[in-house]
Amino acid sequence: MPAEFETVIGLEVHAEMNTASKIFCGCETAFGGEPNTHCCPVCMGLPGALPVFNGGVAEKAILAGLSLGCEITRETVFDRKNYFYPDLPKAYQISQLYHPICQGGGIELASGRFIRLREIHMEEDAGKLIHDPWTESTLADYNRCGVPLMEIVTQPDLRSPEEVIEFMQSLKSILEYAGVTDGKMHEGSLRADLNISVRRPGEGFGTRTEMKNMNSFKAIQRAVTVESERQIALIKRGERVLQETRRWDDNRDLSYPMRSKENAQDYRYFPEPDLPALHIDEGWLNEACKALPELPKAKRERYFAQFVLPRHDVEILCQTHALTVLLERTAEQGASPKDAANWILSDVLRLCREREIEPAELQLAPKALAEIIAAVNGGRVNRSGGRALLEHVLAGEKAVEAAIAELGLELAGDENALGASIAEVLAENPDAVANYRAGKVKVLGFLAGQCMQKLKGRADPRRVSELLREELAK
Ligand code: ADP
Ligand code: MG
Ligand code: ZN
After folding, report:
1. 132 forms bridges with which residues in the sheet?
2. Which one of 195, 196, 241 would you pick to mutate in the ligand 1 pocket, going by the greatest count of ligand atoms within 8 A of its CB?
3. Is residue 194 lining ligand 1, measured as CB closer than 6 Å?
4. Residue 10 CB–ligand 1 contact under 6 Å
5. What is the pLDDT of residues 26-84, one digit of tens each?
6. What DSSP string describes 183-236?
7. How far is the CA of 29 from the centre of ligand 3 (A)?
8. β-bridge mates for residue 455, sequence order
9. What is the per-residue pLDDT for 315?
10. Whose CA is nearest to atom 4 of ligand 1?
11. Does 156 sit in the ligand 1 pocket, CB within 6 Å?
12. CA 402, 408, 410 angle in degrees (round to 5)?
């Protein structure tokens, strides 16, 4: 049965670009820092201060555009968007309205549906307001003023929360591969405005609402679901959806109206008089094309062809650029790609989840991972010892060799000790031995466990089983 209503979603995604300095001044862009220490007269908007465009920002925007199949605008211009808000000391934002740097392009979903982009434009970020409930006052931190942003605007082509999440994941992945943003959603360096409407299939677009600055996949998924349900319920009751901006409350799992668009403000856009148009010539474009790295799709295909890895594993790995970098560098250090992939997909990802960090934030040297893998494969350390090593190396930047010694993980390599423990266990468990010899081979696990206990876990379980089997066959 076809659904009675269809959800229509269009996104405006803001990505902070990872340039070292801001878009119109030399101040640093690093996240955090003492409030108001990454500031100067330009980004604070002091009278008379003039912006100078950071060409690195255009380079990143062009790379993003090429990665997303956009057309690059050869003569791109900045515009002034005027409005007053305390996080914007200049009282205007330098942005692009009429001639954005990239146009068109898009992302193909796994279903084959193509989600079109309208444009990518460059603009400056605003500061941050911190509302202090204790003193009932608001503090302004202007460190973020002038951090370069690209705004990626889609056509209203998305049709479900699942499509929105897949699109966002894919976009994040492509931007990370292109090296233009760090993609840290929890720090706000990637955030999406959701435009949502509903309609009966075949009808024209309905009235949309907007939810700004959504910065987690979970919140995005819930917000789209809950908002489309709210709109459908309104229409079924014979009421009208109001065009408005709503705020998503993640704790209460609902949204509430913030401001109506019926009295939308007029931004009095006009071409920015303090900046010249930017001409992107053939030479510049060619350079950018050459700088274009391997993108997720090509990487996936190469991994399928080159490594013997399950399809699903390749897909998970390739979604996160940092994981592919770790895999390739670990392999360069001598580990087999298959082992590296297994460790990354199990232990490395688990560590990221436990620490609530993105893989890109994990300070794990590929050399260390390769050494841990070698120690386990060589039977020097067992798998759980390998896990302990990984955590130890991460916690203190210790060298793997030193950590093996410090944690006492070296397995009893000494075959005499192994042989002695096996002899003891066989003597202590005549019933199990008889059962094994009568064909109940499952008791081998029990006997091996007894040996491991005697050896206090410091033995290679594979070697123990092997020796047990030999002994029992005698
Ligand atoms: P505005 O000028 O108000 O910002 P735009 O036309 O620029 O509006 O569109 C902003 C975003 O809203 C785009 O991502 C677009 O795809 C999306 N959008 C436009 N109309 C609808 C609609 N009816 N339903 C859902 N999204 C929409
Ligand atoms: Mg818009
Ligand atoms: Zn500055």
Report:
1. 137
2. 195
3. no
4. yes
5. 999 998 889 999 999 999 999 999 999 999 999 999 999 999 999 999 999 999 999 99
6. --GGGTSEEEEEEEEEE-TTSPP---EEEEEE--HHHHHHHHHHHHHHHHHHHH
7. 9
8. none
9. 95
10. 12
11. yes
12. 85
> How confident is the model over 380-399, as pLDDT tens digits?
888 888 888 888 888 766 78
All domains of the chain, ordered by start, with CATH?
6-283 (no CATH), 294-407 (no CATH), 415-473 (1.10.10.410)
**Ligand 3 mean position to 39 CA, how many Å?**
4
- Both structure tokens of 418: 């192994």
Does residue 148 contact residue 19 with C-beta atoms inside 8 Å? yes
Give the 3-state secondary structure of residue 122. Answer: strand
- pTM (two decimals): 0.86
With a 6 A CB cut-off, is 180 part of the ligand 1 pocket? no
Q: What is the CA 38 to chain-centroid distance, rounded?
A: 26
Which region, left, alpha or beta, applies to residue 349 given φ > 0 means left and ψ of -120 to 50 means alpha? alpha
Q: Are 453 and 421 in contact (CB under 8 A)?
A: no
Q: Which atom of ligand 1 is nearest to the CA of 155?
A: 16
The token pair at 345 is: 């997909």
Half-sphere exposure of 350 (CA within 13 A, CB side): 9
d(Cα 71, Cα 164) in Å, to the nearest integer?
23
Residue (of 234, 276, 242) closest to 259 by Cα position: 242
Q: For residue 435, what are the contacts with CB-CB under 8 A and spacing of at least 6?
A: 443
Parts of the chain with a pLDDT under 70: 1-2, 261-264, 396-397, 411-415
Q: Is the CB of 205 under 6 A from ligand 1?
A: yes
Residue 42 CA to residue 47 CA, distance in Å, equals 9
Q: CA-to-CA distance for 257 and 243, rounded, in angstroms?
A: 10
Question: 294-306: string of b/e by CB count within 10 Å (b at 16+)?
Answer: ebbeebbeebeee
Using the Cα atoms of residue 406, residue 409, residue 415 and residue 421 in order, give the sign of their dihedral.
positive
Residue whose C-alpha is closest to residue 155's, from 1, 309, 294, 10: 10
Neighbouring C-beta atoms of residue 28, cutoff 10 Å: 13
Burial 49-86 (b: 16+ CB within 10 A, else e): eebebbeebbbbbbbbbbbbbbebbeebbbbbbeeeee
Q: Report d(CA 165, CA 158) in Å as an integer.
A: 10
CA distance 445 to 429: 13
Contact partners, residue 75, CB within 8 Å, separation at least 6: 99, 277, 278, 279, 280
- What is the distance between the alpha carbons of residues 210 and 247, in angstroms, rounded to a whole number? 8
The two tokens of residue 9 are 């979603």
